Amino acid sequence: MTVLLAILALLAVGVGCGLGAVARWGIHEGFSKLVSSRGSSSILVEVVPWPTVIANVLACFVLGIVVTRIGAEPTGSLRYLFLLLGAGLCGGMSTLAGAARDVVQLARRGTPVLAVGYLLVTVAVGMGALWVGVLVTQGTGATGGA
Q1: Which among 3, 38, 99, 101 would be 20 to 30 A from 115, CA to CA?
Q2: Domain ranges for the chain
Q3: pLDDT tens figures, 119-132
């Protein structure tokens, strides 16, 4: 790989990751404003870290579309699109570190069963969202090699 192509790859991942991180932040801010404007005080809203769940599930869904549409290991110019959307956008939007932080916080609050359940549900729902993205995209006939 030439230096120019390496720089292009780095830029694709960096720009995508930045957009994904901004999307994750927007989900958190939007959810917080929605909950506060409705005055929700449900234990489910207060205890479960929904913004992280939403960001992770959405990122997995989009990744399912990306890998179905352009392939999991594309070549040529599609490689840079995958780096932008798959590695960058989806990687920046999803956050295993955020989910891990949430698990620790739930456990420290004295809810270890909820912490373990949250971890299992996060992984299961994320993988389910990935497959829904794959199936939705395959249903349109727009597959690229996944």
Answers
A1: 38
A2: 3-139
A3: 999 999 999 999 99
